[in-house]
């Protein structure tokens, strides 16, 4: 392999990165070739000492995306970082993607529970408030009779709304913890891969 082939393969495996990041990595490797050739090495020797350009590109891409996810807390960034990390090998498909998708499923379930409890509380309160109007349009449904039962349903609705609101606030904090935990997990995973190579 010669320098041109090495750089072409490296560039291909850096796709999806910002041009500035991509150009910085490519210029670093161009510098490796320049210094190596100044020291009397052939292009083939330099390529061999640097390693597999495809793997270098994938590792660099994953590291940059994990760093970007750490700096900018956006769900899309962490998802790109996870995808880039699992593309590094079978190990990562099992130990990165599997747990991540499982935890994302748990988070979606918890969010759905928190929001549905809150909305059911709102629905209960609105049902009691607008019961006379609703009964005109849907006459055959059993409605709570009596002031005591209506008050109990209304208060239960307020309690459900309050619990749902607290659960939603908790989910916001849990989502932030999940996001930062995912980034830290990806960083440690990349360190393990670097050590193994």
Features:
197 residues, mainly alpha, 8 helices, 84% helix, 0% strand
Description:
This protein has about 200 residues and is mainly alpha-helical. The protein has a domain at about 90-195. Helix content is about 85%, strand content about 0%. The protein contains eight helices and no strands. It has helices at about 5-10, 20-40, 45-50, 55-70, 75-85, 90-130, 130-135, 145-195. Helix 5 (about 75-85) packs across helix 8 (about 145-195) and helix 6 (about 90-130) runs antiparallel to helix 8. The radius of gyration is 28 Å and the shape is rod-shaped.
Query: Order of SSEs, N→C?
Result: HHHHHHHH
Low-confidence stretches: none
Mean pLDDT figure: 84
**Largest sheet, described in full?**
none
Q: What is the 3D form?
A: rod-shaped
Quaternary structure annotation: single chain
Q: How many strand elements?
A: 0
Instruction: Give me the Rg, rounded.
Output: 28 Å
């Amino acid at each position: 392999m010669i320098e041109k082939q090495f750089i072409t393969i490296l560039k291909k495996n850096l796709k999806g990165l910002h041009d500035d990041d991509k150009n910085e990595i490519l210029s670093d490797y161009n510098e490796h070739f320049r210094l190596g050739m100044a020291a009397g090495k052939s292009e083939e020797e330099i390529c061999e000492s640097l390693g597999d350009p495809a793997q270098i590109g994938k590792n660099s891409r994953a590291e940059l995306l994990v760093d970007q996810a750490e700096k900018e807390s956006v769900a899309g960034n962490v998802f790109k970082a996870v995808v880039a990390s699992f593309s590094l090998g079978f190990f990562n498909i099992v130990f990165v993607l599997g747990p991540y998708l499982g935890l994302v499923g748990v988070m979606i379930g918890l969010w759905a529970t928190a929001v549905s409890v809150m909305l059911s509380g709102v629905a209960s309160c609105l049902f009691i408030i607008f019961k006379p109007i609703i009964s005109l349009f849907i006459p055959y449904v059993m409605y709570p009779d009596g002031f005591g039962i209506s008050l109990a349903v209304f208060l239960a609705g307020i309690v459900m709304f309050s619990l749902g609101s607290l659960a939603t606030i908790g989910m916001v904090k849990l989502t932030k913890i999940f996001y930062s935990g995912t980034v830290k997990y990806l960083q440690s995973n990349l360190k393990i891969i670097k050590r193994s190579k």
